[in-house]
Amino acid sequence: MSGEVAIAKAVGGLAARGGARLLARGALAALGPVGWVAIGALTLYDAYAVYNAIAGSDDDADKKPECETGDCDKPAEKIDKKPPFKGEPNSTVQGPDNSRTYGSDGYPLTDRDAGHQNESGIGAGDHVHDWGRPANGDPPTNADRGISRLPQPGDPPVPWRNTPSS
Fold first, then answer.
1. Tens digits of residue pLDDT in 70-129
2. Helix (H) or strand (E) holding 102
3. Which of 32, 35, 73, 165 sits at 20 to 30 Å (Cα–Cα) from 129?
C-alpha cells in the first residue's frame, strides 16, 4: 500500500504543476486492461497533436531566403511552388521546384523541373518539357506538355531550390 501512496503523491504533485492529464492517466491505469487501452488512445492523440504542431511550423519551407531576393532587411515572402499557368508574355518565372518560360500568348512555352524522386530516367534529374499548341488555336492544356528531355542552352533557369550554392 505504501507504493500506491507514493505514486499518488507523485502524480498529485505533477497535477498541481499542470499535470492533470497525467493524473487522469493514473486513474485510468487503476482500471486495469480497459484503462491501459484508454491510456494508449490518449498517447496516440497526444502524438497526433504534437505531429500537427510540428507540421504546422513548416510554413517557412517555401520561402525564398531573404538575402537571395536582394533585400536582407525585409522578411522572405512566400511564393507558390509552381509558376502560374498563364504569365507575362515572353517572360520567365523561376520557382523553387519549377521554372517556366512563357510564349508571346502568355501560355507556357517551356518548363524546367527539378528531378522527381518517384521517376527513373530523364525525369529523375533536372529536365525540361516543351509545350505545344492545339491546332484549333485553343489555349494549351496538360495534354500539350511534351515528354521529358535533357536541358539545353536557352531553356529556363534551374529552379532556385536546385541551384548550387556558391
1. 555 544 455 557 889 999 999 999 888 889 999 999 999 999 988 777 777 777 788 999
2. strand 98-102
3. 165
Helix, strand, coil tally for the chain in percent (to 5) = 40, 15, 45
Q: What range defines the domain where residue 26 resides? A: 2-58
Nearest Cα to Cα of residue 109 among 92, 94, 123: 92
Predicted structure pTM score:
0.49
Neighbours of 158 (CB within 10 A): 15
In this structure, are residues 126 and 115 in contact, taking their beta carbons and an 8 Å threshold? yes
What is the Cα–Cα distance from 148 to 129, expressed in whole angstroms?
A: 5
Instruction: Say if CB 61 and CB 68 are below 8 A apart.
Output: no
Same domain, 24 and 54: yes
Cell matching residue 117: 524522386
Position 161, amino acid: R
- Spatial separation of the C-alpha atoms in residues 109 and 28, rounded to whole Å: 64
- The answer to whether residue 53 scores a pLDDT higher than 60 is yes
What 8-state DSSP symbol labels residue 123? G
Are 92 and 41 in a shared domain?
A: no
